[in-house]
Amino acid sequence: MARSGFARRLASADRCLFGTWVKIPALETVEILADAGFDFVVIDQEHAPLTFEFAYQATVAAQGAGLAVVVRVPDRSGSHLQRMLDAGVDGILVPRVTGVEETSEAVRQMLFSPGGDRGMGITSRAGRWGGLPRDEYLRFGDEEVMRAVQLEDRAAIEAVDDILDVPGLNGVFLGTGDLQLSSGLTPSDPEFQKLVERFLSAAQARGIPAGTAVQTVEQAREAAGRGFRYVMVSNDTGLLQSAAAATVAGLTSA
Question: Is 101 exposed, middle or buried, given 0-12, 13-18 or 19+ CB atoms closer than 10 A?
Fold first, then answer.
């Protein structure tokens, strides 16, 4: 029976999938998030000091506990893509992509020939150390792994139709924090909401799952209601901080 990866899960799910960011370099945190019931985690190498070695170990631990694993690589250079794919991750998120050329270059590095330039590493974990049949290894890499770019400035949103037409792209993510900075708009501004709707409409028209990140459960529900298909809610540090602060507040008010 063919395995089902994160890209297929997103495409076939009858609901939005919810995850959170991993920023603490500890496998215990990953296990706690799995036990909590999240659908996936995103290992954040862009805004947290997480090494390749930790990302590799966390991927093994998370998948073993039933979580899908997406990695946000440190930058858009592409230098980290091959090793993370060889580690057997379920998806890659490439940050700060601004146009078609950058998108195309990133996607090609995540696709096998003839569609792309990804090297064959069938003896890696992604190939089950050489145990996967060659055809299944290639099929899974091209059909089941999510290849997503993060759009987070106004110019990228204005070019969203061309970006999402890049062959092989099967995921997209809206970075609302940096979009606020680049556009000079607040989320309550109708112009900002028009940019969000433009992003969502373009993704929905092409059947490409769109994701975003929020801070609260209420915001996550709202994002799902708008049409986002995967949403990161808070992060491990934020969840710990909130729980710790609530505990101390309860003690001091007793």
Answer: exposed
